[in-house]
Amino acid sequence: MVQPSANGGQLRRPWTEAGMAGTNAGTRLRAAPSGESDELGRRLAASAEYRPRPAGDVVEWLAGRRRSVPVEVTRIPFDRMAGWSFDPGSGDLVHESGRFFTVGGIHARTDYGVVPDWRQPIIYQQDVAIVGILAKEIDGVLHFLMQAKIEPGNVNTVQLSPTVQSTSSNYLRTHRGARSRFVEYFTEPGRARVLVDVLQSEQGAWFWAKRNRNVVMEVTGEVEPHDDFAWMTLGQILDLLHHPNVVNMDSRTVLACLLASASSIVRPGDGAAAAFAAPPYASGEDAFLSPVQVRSWLTERKSAYTLATRAIPLDSVDGWERGADAIRRPDGRYFSVVGVEVHAGNREVSDWCQPLLEPRGIGLAALVVRRINGILHVLARADLRPGCRDTVELGPTVQCTPENYEGAPRETRPRYLDLVLSRSVKVRYDVVQSEEGGRFRHAQTRHLVVEVGGGFPARTPADFCWLTVPQAMALARQSYQVNIEARSLLLCLHAL
Amino acid sequence: MVQPSANGGQLRRPWTEAGMAGTNAGTRLRAAPSGESDELGRRLAASAEYRPRPAGDVVEWLAGRRRSVPVEVTRIPFDRMAGWSFDPGSGDLVHESGRFFTVGGIHARTDYGVVPDWRQPIIYQQDVAIVGILAKEIDGVLHFLMQAKIEPGNVNTVQLSPTVQSTSSNYLRTHRGARSRFVEYFTEPGRARVLVDVLQSEQGAWFWAKRNRNVVMEVTGEVEPHDDFAWMTLGQILDLLHHPNVVNMDSRTVLACLLASASSIVRPGDGAAAAFAAPPYASGEDAFLSPVQVRSWLTERKSAYTLATRAIPLDSVDGWERGADAIRRPDGRYFSVVGVEVHAGNREVSDWCQPLLEPRGIGLAALVVRRINGILHVLARADLRPGCRDTVELGPTVQCTPENYEGAPRETRPRYLDLVLSRSVKVRYDVVQSEEGGRFRHAQTRHLVVEVGGGFPARTPADFCWLTVPQAMALARQSYQVNIEARSLLLCLHAL
User: Fold this and answer.
1) Backbone torsions φ then ψ of B70, nearest 5 degrees
2) A-chain residues within 8 Å CB-CB of B481?
3) B40: nearest CA in chain A?
4) Do B213 and A303 touch (CB under 8 A)?
5) Is the Cβ–Cβ distance between B152 and B75 less than 8 Å?
6) Choosing among A100, A166, A258, A303, which should be mutated to test the B contact, i.e. which has the most B CBs within 10 A?
7) Which segments constitute the dTDP-4-dehydro-6-deoxy-alpha-D-glucopyranose 2,3-dehydratase domain (chains A, B) (predicted)?
8) Residue A284: what pLDDT?
9) Which domains does chain B have, with CATH numbers?
10) Which one, out of A50, B3, B77, B152, has a CA that is 20 to 30 A from the CA of A194?
11) How far apart are CA B122 and CA B105, in angstroms?
């Protein structure tokens, strides 16, 4: 376990002194003027300003964990995938226990976008996973217990995960290996104090109606140390967002929800990103739309489209072919479903096999930002995905896999795709981050924040809307309003 | 059109004077101390205090509308239901246009409650209805444009409806009759100012994943008068909640969402219900649980249960029988599906036929309330219904049809059902209200608010939770957190 107090932070620094005591260069989150009192927001701002160790130390620690637990992930044909088989009736890819998840088919019809009717494989998983982070005050500053976690789909095997990342198949019942470490803080009442606890959607193109419980629990007592876990501040984690594929998707969405729960005072400041962020920060009057107008826009967009989905047997997904070692389209587009075998040297997990969904190419999640009335606004898009419980959520300006549009007619290319990749924008953030490695293989998404100038029209097509960052964060406080890529980008915005 | 300024209200009464100028007996909503400024809340409080006419006038007006447009609703066998037929493949009851709605089947499996696996008929309706109320300041006080609307399922034909109550089949396309009157205020941007606009679930036992857009739009200009519409204040509408089957379900849910959007300052006061409401009103510190704990409880309950639903052909719903004029269970439980023919003398609507879902007996929606730390708390229940998009929502303490439990084993009776019907509680509200008459026939629900004393345990079973009214209203600001019966009861609480 990395001891955050071993280097720096010897002095007790209560959060009330936070604004003055930053040890690092950029003050990137700051507390609001007193009066807008929000204890959690002040504590998060203090944690964001405090970096007892440089980000490189965590990267090295992850590399060390990677070396100490050698893991081998091998692609195997489906008939060698122990425990998994194709259901003779439906062709669905199922586990013999009936648990974990199933790869089945879906038939979707919608009046959104350019494809009105399609069938595709999709992951069905009924239970709600806990993606939970333990928080604790150390030296008077909030720290978060992050895990160096092996996931078979990760390009680099080990990434920084929440303290607990566990489906109820894992935490309620026994199966391979032991119960998730520290899960009792999230399942047993009274062991910790809840800071945020909200259901959020996952990737709606790949999961059907999947949702996770994004939760942060604060403890005050001793937490048993373990080599795979380390306490770090929000500042350290935000720094790590400048490294590719380090902070995993589950960590990013939980932390986005945590910041959203206090967004009235956790805000990008005028430190390292002075040229980019716009002080004074958005107040309601300066925003392009009022909060109720923003909400109404999203409600109207949710109502504007119909989406009819129907579970269908995997065998009846037209246009996809099942080979010996992959389910894929002949044209190679979108994704394939493959099988892997995992040999891990970790004493808690024995070897296992599982399917993974492997997207084609590197995805793109891009957020266009500009100043309106001197205030930073993000250009969000009403995004419909077949697996979204509430059909439409607020997404990034552009969310797609550019390779899928190679050779496609110009009018089918996503709006603003060419803009965000052009030289006419100022790139403010450009880092490749991973999707969840427990279900997706080598799924990487380029996270891009680009700024446009005042010449860019404030009026937009109906599916797009300018919001301030606090307005977007306020929507993320609620379930099923902000999609997972947008939540991830909103967190990255706080690292600028 | 009833002119609210014809009687009373001659003086211009800006909302800032509202607290002083109540013309009626009970001051039941009041503005918060200044500092907690919330313009909408103050305006709603003023509207709640102002009653230019007694409630009886509106009841008489509705009776007059009922007489002036004679409507005849006749139960007919399915084979006489013009435009509707049973699909030969599935047995689903469908309209020839493919629009409106379909009665199909659902197969539900869950670990919630005492029935783990069942099939039932259910209504499928893809499009999102607008249930929208126009608001306008008249004599300085917010008034709402309510409609005397004929619905074939209403026990009394005409009830007080929102200004617009229309599915997109109606407002986007032409079909029988004209476009809904006033719908342009809700569909054309810039015609009005949005006060609230949120998607909410409908009856999850009868509708599959149905959601409505609950919206209130404020206008400033002239609104064309029409005999079926009248402007009234919130105070008048709240008074009408003491009359059975007057304010329809759609009106109740929209107004609940409107009050929720300003709940920080719209609160039961200490007027007529001084013995019941608890001044000083709930502040965060006096609540039994903090807001984040309440939210966490509901998130945890949403995660605690699995619900797997699958659309099935109506023909394959075991245990239900299709006769010539009803689809029902041999034991008569739950509900039946019937057909009706409607003859209306209204020039805008020609005769039509449609199916209706007719529940057995009168439903019960009961809320147990008690004072904790001197503050009014309501005992909410985590309620799972097969048609709920988010599986579990916060429901009343008891929500059931008592007749369905006649002769059933004691252990299957809903928790607290016997309590709320017993003499050991103080009845604070007991009025029968209707479910939506456009889909449900003679569906009435007894709305009951009962108070228990300090001897009632504050600790409750896991599916129950004590919340303050503002905490419950805060959840109702979000989609899919508070079910339709609970929203209806929360509105009724404001009438006390």
Assistant:
1) -65, 130
2) 479
3) A292
4) yes
5) no
6) A303
7) 57-258, 293-493
8) 55
9) 276-305+361-494 (3.90.79.40)
10) A50
11) 6
Helix (H) or strand (E) holding A7: none
Residues linked to residue A322 through DSSP beta bridges, in sequence order = A327
| pLDDT over 90 at A13, yes or no | no
Contacts of A196 in chain B (CB under 8 A): 292
When pLDDT is averaged across residues A152-168 and rounded to a whole number, the result is 93
Locate all alpha helices (DSSP H) within B305-435, ordered by sequence: 417-420
Higher pLDDT, B175 or B258: B258
Q: What gap in Å lies between CA A233 and CA A256, rounded to an integer?
A: 15
Measured between alpha carbons, how far is A91 from A105 in angstroms, rounded to an integer? 9
pLDDT tens-digit map of B308-328: 999 999 999 999 999 999 999
How far apart are alpha carbons A186 and A200 in whole angstroms?
17
The number of C-beta contacts closer than 8 angstroms across A and B is 78
Q: Is A190 helix (H, G, I), strand (E, B) or coil?
A: coil
- CB-CB neighbors (< 8 A) of B94 in chain A: none
Chain B nearest C-alpha distance from A205 (Å): 18
Pick from A261-265, A448-452, B385-389: least confident = A261-265
For residue range B100-138, list pLDDT tens digits in order: 899 999 999 999 999 999 999 999 998 899 999 999 999
Residues on chain B touching A300 (C-beta within 8 angstroms): 197, 213
Which residues of A sit within 8 Å Cβ distance of B?
126-128, 130, 168, 194-199, 213, 215, 261, 292-293, 295-296, 299-300, 302-303, 306-308, 310-311, 389-390, 478-481
Pick among A292, A392, A393, A460 to test the B interface (most B CBs inside 10 A): A292
- Give the span between the Cα atoms of B203 and B193, in whole angstroms: 29
What backbone torsions phi and psi does residue B432 show, to the nearest 5 degrees? -85, 125
Q: Is the pLDDT of residue B4 over 60?
A: no
Residue A74 CB partners (closer than 8 Å, separation 6+) = A340, A341, A343
Q: Which of B38, B99, B194 to mutate to test the interface with A (most CBs of A within 10 A)?
A: B194
Residue numbers in A near B291 (CB within 8 A): none
Pick the residue with more confidence: A86 or A20? Answer: A86
Shortest alpha-carbon distance between residue A48 and chain B (Å): 22
Q: Which of B357, B364, B439, B441 is nearest to B404 (CA)?
A: B364
Among B199, B261, B299, the residue with its CB nearest the CB of A197 is B299
The model carries a pTM of 0.89
Residue B169: per-residue pLDDT? 62
SS3 content of chain B, % helix, strand, coil (to 5): 25, 35, 45
Residue B284's pLDDT is 55
